[in-house]
């Protein structure tokens, strides 16, 4: 991939056959569950609460004593994921607050040693996933508001009182120890999802500048691929892919769009498989006051548009401190599952289609079949640039033909009113 950022990553990385196979699986999977869960969920104010409220390190460290998710049932989560039509889970093994949700020897600041619950939730999840053939990814924060050896501090966290000044090289060693544990004690791991790179970039209040530290990606990525060659590496750094990465993710924006400030510019789009992550409401971690729950239409249209880019959708839930998922989130996931049971053929295993996505439509393609997803109720829709020769064109799931005509610029579809679906009207085109 010509866009790869050279020099920082795993030098001369050649993905193994297992890795290439895993990339193909990933590309076909299309839908996964993102989980932001940690001791912050107790406060019900999102995963950035430590930073947003400038909670001193020693005060925040009292939180784990209250974390006792006795209602957590890994099998129930995995069943919910399967019913939603999702193929994988990406869970926060350690977020920016530095608290490890797994059994680690690298620090006592973890779920087994510091909470009354005392059990490893990642282990339980890994076992349940294995049983049900759901793949598991670990989110791993590069940035850390807790550790002294995360020094120099990043641009976030400087307002959090109570830090010492440790050694950066110790921090890198700490991460390597934890990543080794994550890739040794939980069976086959589908991927590691890094986040927080941007914390160590210069920031003038408006835009990012140069990177201030060496993340040692060369060693870290190599370690991961040596331990588990199939393990896919993604990094939410909001720049073009770095050597050694296996997929590119886009936060809260479709590839190449930047409506949120977290997006990635057109010029940073590489050729690795894509993943877009989005929240089911407005928050990643559990937030008591969040009322921005997305509708079924918004969520379905998001996966459709993501697939129109050839991208997966990683849809987030923030479990409650007791280990349960909010009812309204469960309901949304169920609706997605119902929709995918009917229409999954037009999403799973597809690649980006020849036109769009636009606000009106997205297209996906599998071999000689193109699926046109119409996202607005209109009698006439023009698919710009579509010029392939058509053998047959029907409303998806029926034999009923769609009235259409070509002009110099594309394909004009005339949609019968009684065939218009308020969420997504799907047209199936078989090419000659
Ligand atoms: O700061 C994090 C945030 O808490 C969350 O984890 C998201 C998920 O994509 N990523 C970061 C912001 O880029």
From TrEMBL:
Keywords: Glycosidase, Hydrolase, Signal. One of its GO terms (biological process) is glycoside catabolic process. One of its GO terms (cellular component) is lysosome. The record marks 277 as: May be important for catalysis. It holds the Pfam family Alpha_L_fucos. Residues 7-345 form the Glycoside hydrolase family 29 N-terminal domain. The keyword Signal applies. Its EC number is 3.2.1.51. GO terms for molecular function: alpha-L-fucosidase activity. Transmembrane segments: none annotated. It comes from the Bacteria. SMART domains: Alpha_L_fucos. Belongs to the glycosyl hydrolase 29 family. Alpha-L-fucosidase is responsible for hydrolyzing the alpha-1,6-linked fucose joined to the reducing-end N-acetylglucosamine of the carbohydrate moieties of glycoproteins. This is alpha-L-fucosidase. It comes from Flagellimonas alvinocaridis.
């Amino acid at each position: 991939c010509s866009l790869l950022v050279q020099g920082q990553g795993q030098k001369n990385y050649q993905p193994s056959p297992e890795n290439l196979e895993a990339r193909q699986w990933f590309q076909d999977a299309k839908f996964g569950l993102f989980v932001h869960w940690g001791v912050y969920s107790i406060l019900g104010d999102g995963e950035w609460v430590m930073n947003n409220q400038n909670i001193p390190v020693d005060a925040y460290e009292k939180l784990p004593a209250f974390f006792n998710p006795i209602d957590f049932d890994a099998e129930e989560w995995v069943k919910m994921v399967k019913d939603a039509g999702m193929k994988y889970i990406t869970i926060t093994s350690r977020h920016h607050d530095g608290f490890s949700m797994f059994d680690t020897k690298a620090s006592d600041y973890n779920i087994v040693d510091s909470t009354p619950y005392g059990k490893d939730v990642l282990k339980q999840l890994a076992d349940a996933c294995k049983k049900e053939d759901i793949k598991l990814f670990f989110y791993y924060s590069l940035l850390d508001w807790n550790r002294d050896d995360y020094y120099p501090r990043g641009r976030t966290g400087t307002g959090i009182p109570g830090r010492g000044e440790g050694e950066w090289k110790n921090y890198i060693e700490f991460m390597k120890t934890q990543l080794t544990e994550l890739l040794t004690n939980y069976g086959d791991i589908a991927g590691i999802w890094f986040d927080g790179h941007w914390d160590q970039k210069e920031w003038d209040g408006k835009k990012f500048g140069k990177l201030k530290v060496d993340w040692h990606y060369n060693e870290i990525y190599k370690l991961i691929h040596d331990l588990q060659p199939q393990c896919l590496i993604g990094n939410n750094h909001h720049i073009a892919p770095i050597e050694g990465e296996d997929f590119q993710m886009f936060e809260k924006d479709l590839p190449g769009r930047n409506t949120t400030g977290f997006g990635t510019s057109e010029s940073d789009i590489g050729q690795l498989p894509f993943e877009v992550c989005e929240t089911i409401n407005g928050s990643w971690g559990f937030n008591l006051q969040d009322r921005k729950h997305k509708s079924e239409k918004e969520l379905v249209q998001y996966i459709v548009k993501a697939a129109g880019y050839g991208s997966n959708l990683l849809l987030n839930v923030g479990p409650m401190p007791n280990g349960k998922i909010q009812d309204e989130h469960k309901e949304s996931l169920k609706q997605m599952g119902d929709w995918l049971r009917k229409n999954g053929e037009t999403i799973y295993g597809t690649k980006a289609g020849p036109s769009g996505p636009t606000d009106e439509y997205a297209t996906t393609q599998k071999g000689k079949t193109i699926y046109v997803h119409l996202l607005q109720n209109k009698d006439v829709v023009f698919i710009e640039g579509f010029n392939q020769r058509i053998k047959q064109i029907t409303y998806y799931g029926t034999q009923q033909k769609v009235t259409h005509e070509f002009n110099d610029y594309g394909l004009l579809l005339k949609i019968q009113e009684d065939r218009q679906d308020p969420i997504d009207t799907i047209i199936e085109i078989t090419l000659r």
